What we know:
The complex is a heterodimer.
Chain A: H1 5-24, H2 31-50, H3 64-72, H4 76-81, H5 88-106, E1 122-124, E2 128-130, H6 146-158, H7 162-165
Antiparallel strand pairs in A: 1-2
Helix pairs in contact in A: 1-2, 2-3, 3-5, 5-6
Chain B: H1 8-24, E1 28-34, E2 39-46, E3 61-63, E4 74-80, E5 101-105
Parallel strand pairs in B: 2-4
Antiparallel strand pairs in B: 1-2, 1-5, 3-4
Amino acid sequence: MPLDWRTAFLRQAKSDYKIYEILLGLDDVPRCQQLHYLQMSTEKLAKGFLSLPGGGPPPRSHNALVRFMQVAAVHREIRTANHYAASHSAFREYVQGLLPKAREVENLSPEGPDHPNPEYPWNDLAVDVVSPLDHDFAGLDPKRSGEMWCLLSFLRNCFELPELRRM
Amino acid sequence: MSKAQVAPSIEKIAKELARENGEADENILQIRWFPNDKQLRLIMVHKLTPPLVEGESVAPFYFGADHAGGVPYQSAIAMVSPDDDLKARLPDTWGTLDDSVVVWEQP
């Protein structure tokens, strides 16, 4: 049976995320390589939900991850998957608190003017050319950032939604 | 689709979700429901939502029916910034703002 766009995006997002978690568990993998998979996974996750089941490709949308998370905060099934079934306000606050970190992940996309990203070298005025291999992306290390750890937990729970679990 | 043709249960759920969310988040200014008998369509005006870029339409996120959560319909939910409210291009087939019903508004 042919895949629809939504399923194709969500399956790929889930697979990217698995690779991210594998790389995260390996000590000798540069953080940029880990984050490259995380950025791709979250972009596809958001785009998958932007695509109507059985419909066409997702529309072009900026800030898709942040928008997805804002909508996720009002969605009962996602709230339950994140173990906040009984506390709507608390879940909204929790998701709201994750948005700055989600923006940082979204900004890992190399699109736009030169900026730190896990994929391509960029020009830094102070030190000239920087390779992603040499940048520490410290704020996106779940071992050092509680918000990052929580964001990953949120994403993992999204991948456990019944629709995604079946994929 | 006219508002009168819509099954009451979807309208009831739309209002219930709107109230639940509007009351839980002071950043939601208004929630509009776009009547449809198969899909629950909501647009929320949220203070912290990034504005659309030029030429971009309102893009809803789609979710399957959530029977356990009391939402037995596919849902389509979008957030817009206050700047985009009233002037953003809506998804095809959603009609116009005149076809929508304000189901929650910040007092």
